[in-house]
Amino acid sequence: MNVRPQMTVALLLWAGTGAPPGQTPTFSSRVEAVRVDVLVTQDGQPVRGLRPADFAIEDNGVPQQVDLVSSEQLPLNVILTLDMSSSVAGEPLGHLRRAGRALLDGLRPGDRAALITFSHVVSMGAPLTGDVGLVRRALDSSEATGNTSLVDASYAGMVLGESDVGRALLLVFSDGLDSSSWLLSEEVLDIARRCDVVAYGVSVGRSPTSDFLRDLSDVTGGKHIEIQSTKDLSATFLSVFDEFRHRYVVSYSPQGVSKDGWHQLTVRVKGRGATVKARSGYFAGS
Amino acid sequence: MSHDAAATRAAPPPSFVVKAALRLFLVLGTILTFGGMPARHATAQYEPRPLTPQAPERLAGVERLRDWLTAVAQHEPGTVDEPARAISLWSRFELDAAMADLRALLDRASGMVSRNQRSSDDATTKTGSGPLTLADVRDLLGLTDDEIRRRDPTRIVRRGAVLHADLAVFTSLGLLVDHSRGNMTMQVYDGRQVGSETRDYHWDFGRTLLDAVKPDPGRDGIVRLWYHAASTFMSSRADLAALEPHIEQARRLFPTDATVQYFSGVLHEAFASPGVQSAILGTETEIGSAELEARRAERFFRRAVMLDPEHLEACLRLGRTLGALGRHAEAAAELQRVIAATDDRLLQYYGNLCLGREEQALGRRDAARAAYERAAAHYPRAQSPYLALSQLARRNGDKAGARSALQPVLDLPARESAREDPWWGYYISAGRHADVLLAELRKPFLPGAKQ
Q: Which pLDDT does position B306 carry in this prediction?
């Protein structure tokens, strides 16, 4: 089994009736469950059809009983957080709009999307909504101008993503360098470790932006993709979306561990040479 | 000090070593852009004054100097007039030659005054002109015999420096096209290099002129004001390439001037900023790491505050810099001092926003929240305080509070014109009084003013 050394662990704590829509909770309302968003691949392809018994989870080194595994049936909340600074002006803006539209076209009934755009100005183009047309119109009306507040916008996207039930995908695209954020990257990464959003970062070329997006993706159990050009951005967005759709949500009720502080998580798939990507831990109570 | 950088590869003349400096356009703030410098386009026709119409042939060799002096005398400060247009067409080499001619002429004429004799020898050999009489020199320079004897061009060079300050300002604002061709500079926008260009030579030439002020430019009020006004304007344009050599020379002339120390700190604080640090990655530059530049900034800000304890902007930036260096208790003390001492809305905003971060770092959440809320109250359409309040709540495990604190940002209109966050203009805000200082500098040289 190949567990990435830097894998990180996603978490959602919910109690009782707070289960995501479309899913029947199987645990006591008095017990907090930990939900971990997990990507399992083999030879680069998502592995499908896994059951609870296929997973092994250790919470602070203590083996846990996996209660539930769910996947594609869960609705998605997709937070598009897109760089609309001056560096995107021209052809890349067209590519970005096209890629955003392609992703929105892939949403299913029950899924929702939101649009956050940023230059130095962070703004919400569309709130989290099932009305894809609203998001599409907001995307089409966005203009590229100004500096880049990538860290501020990523934070806003995270908070928006975890404000609702369901699986949250934070897709952050930037081709610029952060030049005007107030928040510090280390502050936002610290919060990212505590929240249940999975971030996928797409950056153009090698830059400090790549470093931030790579770290953000790592700590949330997502993935960072570095592209050389925006020409094939639609394919990149669709691959992200497809991969996220095929992730598992593994939940368990913590046993034999403290209720506070940082919990280191290890997630494995038994008996397969699979690669598992998830958060490395969670803060209880955060 | 200048910088080798990638921009040096932008095809400089092969026989020259061009050192590229950095011209950094860091931020485009909503309220802190300074495009409105008081510059007026003159409608009057420029008519060169005939200095010695009775003997023009004898001045043929000093035509260049005469043209420059005429422009200096006839330029109306703050106005894009014909004298300004005429000199804007000059190259740096022509400007340097005119200054050399002025010095040489004064040297020769000084001896002539001392000996009280006519000159019919090679008095103007170095400037390549024919023989000049002392009367010609008096007419040409407009100086008294005493000034000539003392080789004192102060009245000329002060006025000349104002003309060249105007030319630098007009060029920067796009009102004139530069032909002086100074050093190569790197242009940075949004944290990345977007090109290089040869910058204008007028600030450099203005400093050269003012070095000739007698008896000591370091004790001259006009020179001091010129340096202050220029530093402020350069800061307003985020023109760090211009500010760096300028402020170094200012420190040599005015080593105990708090404003000069302050702008030295402003320069290094900007060098420490993420936008600059990102842009210089992979380039050869003398700019240090963010920490090194922050330490340099701290030294200058601290000295500025020591020289002028009432210099609240230096105090503010000292506080912010100390925070960036991880010295949060010291930072908080400086910022609290600023907040207590001013009712300036902008300083209150910056002070409280920065104080919130320091209080948070010190574990004083309630004080941090109060500081962020005060910042938000000063600029309700600014996003930074709300982002700060939201992350404060979220780091405390309060998801609902984080969402609630963020909501004002999400509710604000997307268009920039509806936003107003001074944080975006923090690095150029040190230059927000540029128009006032330039007006003050120009005032003694306006028509009808007494010098």
A: 98
Report d(CA B329, CA B21) in Å as an integer: 36
**A194/B397 touch (CB, cutoff 8 Å), yes or no:** yes
Rounded CA separation B389/B371 (Å): 9
Contact B412, A122 (CB under 8 A): no
Helix A185-194 vs helix A208-220: crossing angle, to nearest 10 = 20
pLDDT confidence bin for B113, thresholds 50/70/90: confident
Q: Is residue B406 situated within a structural domain?
A: no
Contact residues, A window 188-207, toward B, CB-based 8 Å cutoff: 188, 190-191, 194-195, 207
Number of domains chain B is built from = 1
How far is it, in rounded angstroms, from Cα B180 to Cα A172? 45
Q: How many helices (H) and strands (E) does chain B have?
A: 19, 5
Domains and CATH numbers, chain A: 2-72+246-284 (2.60.40), 76-244 (3.40.50.410)
Q: Which residue of B has its CA nearest to A117?
A: B414
Q: How far is the C-alpha of B103 from the C-alpha of B256, rounded, in Å?
A: 29
Share of chain B above pLDDT 70, in %: 80
pLDDT in tens, B332-341: 999 999 999 9
Q: Tell me: the pLDDT tens digits for A99-145?
A: 999 999 999 998 999 999 999 999 999 999 999 999 999 999 988 88
A5 C-beta neighbours (distance < 10 Å), count: 6
Residue B375 has pLDDT above 60, yes or no: yes
- Would the pLDDT of B384 be above 90? yes
Domain assignment present for residue B235? The answer is yes
The answer to whether the complex's ipTM is over 0.90 is no
Which residue segment(s) compose the domain that B8 sits in? Answer: 1-254
Which are the contacts of B292, defined by CB distance < 8 A and separation ≥ 6?
none
Beta bridge partners of residue A47, listed in sequence order: none
CB A80, CB A161: distance < 8 Å: no
Please write the tens of the pLDDT for every residue from B333-368.
999 999 999 999 999 999 999 999 999 999 999 999
CA distances to A171, A176, B423 from B278, in Å: 23, 10, 19
d(Cα A284, Cα A13) in Å, to the nearest integer?
8
Residue B315: the pLDDT is 98
Domain assignment present for B420: no
Phi, then psi, of B83 in degrees rounded to 5: -55, -40
Give the number of other CB atoms < 10 A from CB of residue A108: 9
Q: Which segment of A18-22, A83-87, B96-100, B417-421 scores lowest on mean pLDDT? A: A18-22
> Which of A 113-172 lie inside 8 A of B, CB atoms?
117, 119-125, 127, 142, 145-148, 152, 155-156, 159-160, 162-163
Q: Do A147 and B413 touch (CB under 8 A)?
A: no
Which residue of chain B is at minimal alpha-carbon distance from A125?
B414
Burial of B345 (0-12, 13-18, 19+ CB in 10 A): exposed
Report DSSP letters for B404-425, one per residue: HHHHHHHHS-SSGGG---GGGG
Q: Number of Cβ pairs closer than 8 Å across A and B?
A: 120
Record the pTM. 0.83
